[in-house]
Write a structure and sequence with these properties.
heterodimer, A: alpha/beta, six-stranded mixed β-sheet, 6 strands, B: alpha/beta, five-stranded parallel β-sheet, 15 helices, 18% strand, globular
Chain lengths: 156, 345
């Protein structure tokens, strides 16, 4: 039974790395990381991919990282289809799947959030910086009490 | 294990994760003992309790020569330095903070687009160590802009005479006496700068940091107030920039004003309050200053070495301290976090 992490590409590195790091810190260390990418963020997704490996490795696991490329970022049906097929495949394989709704465009997060509930992912995570500070900083160097990893499957 | 000044929150996180949210910071010598206590609070806030305060620290330090001899006494920073570390970490304000801000408002915020001369800040040797432009929010890059988008200052004018005054390469050769007085930790301080010389190195590397990372004019001059002030006067006469100067020495300020170089005295407080509110980031800054100034400080589960045998110029340049983890759980977490941060740069 694998643990899967699904996230969204964005040019802001802390936005894409911090939720995964916080999840690892809480004990959710994934076996697979899947990133939804599009031409506008492809470069930063490539940078993030190497760093995902280092983070998961630092938490004692060895993750397979894959990207799913969209032809353009507003291909709404394809985004929805990506989440539907990914979550359903995980459920069939009895895997655990977490959807990260933190990074990226608002519509990306909104679709991810809705899809996480509609197709029944195990977790829908959001990395919350409690105060205005610490922008651009990484999980390990932000005071522990200034961040929170929220699982909306527990909240709603 | 080495940790950079800017990454010390990683250590606070590790302590917090292992149940330490109230951190006594102690000098290894029982006669000095707890210097401050850091309480880690919600939303990245922290409160500092000044366990001794300036006066008690001074009294405690005065008991050291009779008990342990002069080398031990000389290795401890004086009470003024202890207080200045509290100012430098942003926990305690300068006594005349408003006056300094008024000085900067009057002379700074040059309107470069309107053809005004850039304003550059000079620092006297006695304040370089304490990063006051950052603490006061008037640094050329990090300082807050006014409503027209202008910075308080446009760079720095640093005198070579000031740098030379900071060049105190005095080493510690009394480690046997220090170890007997303060504890085994001090064996690691052999051949390292002792006492007030650690403050000198702190200042020297702050001078170099500014020179490397800011727009800086270097003013060539000899040491001493007379030569340094003359260099600022000549700079203002011959360059298209206006240098203004901060100092903790009234003589330096008077001499500057007499020759037409705008200068402002900074008043450090004579004592520290019992408690001060701040952030984890400020608490981390205070840890850095205390570790360097005292050489060694003990925290729960870890001992911090501001200097250690083998600390070299690169360690000073990167503002590294050495951490000895007494708890086996802290070291792996620090290593893990530093590995992750290493790939985020």
């Amino acid at each position: 039974m694998a643990r899967i992490w699904v996230t969204i590409g964005t040019p802001t590195m802390p936005a894409i790395l911090n939720p995964l790091t916080a999840a690892c810190d809480r004990g959710y260390v994934p076996d697979e990381v899947l990133v939804l990418s599009n031409p506008g963020v492809a470069e930063s997704v490539a940078d993030a991919t190497d760093r995902f490996e280092v983070i998961v490795d630092a938490y004692g696991n060895d993750a397979a990282i894959a990207t799913h490329d969209l032809e353009n970022e507003t291909a709404f049906r394809k985004i929805i289809e990506f989440y539907r097929s990914t979550i359903e495949a995980a459920r069939e394989a009895d895997d655990t799947i977490a959807v990260d709704v933190t990074p990226g465009r608002k519509f990306m997060s909104a679709i991810a959030f809705q899809a996480g509930f509609k197709f029944d992912a195990d977790h829908v995570f959001y990395f919350y910086r409690k105060s205005g500070g610490y922008y651009g900083q990484f999980f390990a160097e932000i005071p522990r009490t200034a961040t929170e990893l929220i699982d909306f499957k527990e909240v709603l | 294990m080495h940790l950079e000044r800017s990454r010390l929150v990683v250590l606070l996180n590790a302590l917090y994760d292992h149940g330490v949210d109230s951190i006594p910071v102690k000098h290894p010598c029982g006669a000095i003992g707890e210097l401050v206590r850091i309480d880690l609070e919600d939303d990245g806030r922290a409160t500092i309790r000044c366990t001794q305060g300036t006066m008690t620290y001074q009294d405690n330090r005065e008991t050291i020569p009779a008990k342990y001899g002069e080398p031990a006494y000389n290795d401890l920073p004086d009470a003024e330095t202890y207080t200045r570390a509290m100012v430098a970490s942003g926990h305690v304000a300068l006594d005349n903070r408003d006056e300094v801000h008024e000085f900067v408002r009057r002379h700074g915020y040059a309107d470069l687009e309107a053809g005004h001369d850039p304003v550059v800040l000079g620092l006297d040797a006695n304040i370089v160590a304490w990063r006051l432009p950052d603490v006061l929010g008037i640094d050329a890059e990090t300082g807050e802009t006014d409503d027209r988008g202008r910075r308080p200052i446009n760079g720095y004018a640093l005198a070579t005479g000031v740098k030379e005054e900071l060049d105190w390469h005095y080493k510690q050769y009394n480690t046997a006496e220090l170890t007997a007085a303060f504890g085994d930790e001090f064996a690691r301080l052999d051949d390292q700068p002792a006492g007030a010389n650690r403050e000198g190195l702190l200042a020297l590397y702050e001078y170099r940091r500014l020179r490397a990372n800011r727009t800086v004019d270097i003013l060539d001059c000899e040491t001493g107030d007379e030569a340094i002030v003359a260099a600022y006067e000549a700079f203002n006469r011959n360059s298209r920039k206006q240098a203004v100067v901060l100092s903790n020495d009234y003589g330096f300020v008077d001499r500057s004003v007499d020759v037409g170089v705008p200068a402002q005295h900074v008043d450090f407080p004579v004592d520290v309050p019992r408690t001060a509110a701040g952030s984890w980031t400020q608490a981390a800054e205070l840890l850095y200053y205390l570790a360097v100034l005292f050489g060694v400080v003990r925290l729960p589960k870890v001992t911090l070495y501001g200097v250690w045998n083998g600390k070299d110029g690169r360690h000073w340049q990167h503002e590294r301290i050495d951490i000895d983890c007494c708890s086996p759980k802290i070291a792996p977490q620090l290593e893990r976090d530093l590995t992750i941060l290493g790939v985020t740069e």
